[in-house]
Write a structure and sequence with these properties.
306 residues, 5-stranded antiparallel beta sheet, 4-stranded mixed beta sheet, 20 strands, binds flavin-adenine dinucleotide
Length: 306
């Protein structure tokens, strides 16, 4: 902490000795893109989260949660205020009987699916290839055409930023839609999910099939955030982009994946501006060739570089 650093930094460091300042956010995203976060703090319990929000409230600092960072493009100017990460209690998975499982917001979906499979709980297999944490995946209603996380939700535990209390939201108070949900303004702590009983061996076999299918069709070994655009009703973005002649197209360090044209890869030290140039080009060309206006699935967050 430098001498000229604002007073809140010292206060934060005292409360959270692990807090990092001016930390490159690229390391927290699957794109490996993103400018610095003023502060990055990991909370391990609700008590720590409450402490953090009290300080943030007092100092009027925005608090921005991230999970696996697999659906966001953080711009090159980074994020002002506090970037919030979850660990400790938030990585717990509890089987509570009646085919139900509670999973903390920082639990990674592939691990959750495998744990459920080992318990003979069936249904979540389509989520095995989604590299997201439970929190971010609930915000996005992550899934595939074979099933979405929202399908299994009984209730979601949130933290109210104003009252600083935990709130349990039952399913009927949450709207899940295609790659979006009404949870986007909430801080999510975890969720209670309900699956179906099944045969362990069959479930594990299904998990394996979903994993293999993904390896065949998606560029899983490059830096990317999965699908950049939402599929418009009745269309596949990958096909529209290919028809617009942009499969493999490069802008700076970013390129349209040669394997799946709805993926943009950080191919060679890309900046967020490179990805955004490619996004604009794809939108323009697809509109010209098909008349369709594409809507972003990935979230663009943070500030442009000065
Ligand atoms: C190779 C690859 C394949 C993919 N395939 C799929 C797929 O098949 N289907 C699919 O749906 N997605 C897919 N994705 C996109 C991505 O994995 C999902 O959207 C995932 O659910 C995002 O979870 P996350 O934890 O990474 O969220 P993040 O990217 O970290 O965050 C997403 C949003 O959620 C918010 N958020 C995160 N945690 C919390 C919290 N605890 N409380 C409140 N808000 C929070 C963030 O602020 C942000 O707005 C893929 C991505 C990659 C890289």
């Amino acid at each position: 902490v430098s001498r000229r650093a604002p007073a809140w930094r010292g206060e934060l460091k005292r409360l959270f000795p692990g807090a990092k300042f001016d930390d490159p956010l690229s390391k927290y995203t699957t794109y490996r893109i993103g400018g610095p976060g003023d502060a990055v703090v990991t909370v391990r319990s609700v008590t720590e989260l409450r402490r953090l929000l009290v300080l943030a409230g007092k100092r009027r600092l925005p608090v921005f949660p991230i999970g696996w960072g697999s659906n966001m493009l953080i711009r090159d100017g980074g994020i002002r205020g506090i970037v919030l990460r979850f660990a400790g209690d938030f990585t717990k998975v509890r089987f509570v009987g009646g085919n139900r499982v509670w999973a903390g917001c920082a639990v990674r979906l592939p691990q959750l699916v495998i744990k459920c499979a080992q318990r003979g709980l069936q249904g979540a297999e389509p989520l095995v290839g989604v590299p997201g944490c439970v929190g971010g995946s609930l915000v996005m209603n992550a899934g595939t055409r074979f099933g979405e996380i929202g399908d299994f939700v009984i209730s979601v535990d949130c933290f109210d930023r104003v009252t600083r209390q935990e709130v349990n939201l039952p399913r009927n108070r949450i709207r899940f839609r295609y790659r979006s949900s009404s949870l986007k303004k909430r801080l999510i702590l975890g969720a209670l999910l309900e699956l179906k009983p099944g045969n362990k061996v069959d479930i594990i076999e299904t998990v394996r099939k979903f994993q293999q299918q993904r390896l065949k069709t998606q560029p899983v070994h490059s830096f990317n955030v999965g699908s950049v655009f939402k599929n418009p009703p009745g269309h596949f973005v990958a096909k529209l982009v290919q028809e617009a002649g942009l499969k493999g197209h490069v802008e700076g360090g970013a390129r349209v994946s040669p394997k799946h044209a709805n993926f943009i890869e950080n191919h060679d030290h890309a900046l967020a501006t490179d990805v955004l140039r490619l996004v604009r080009l794809i939108r323009r060309k697809v509109r010209e060739t098909s008349g369709i206006a594409l809507e972003l699935e990935m979230k663009v967050v943070g500030e442009a570089a000065l």
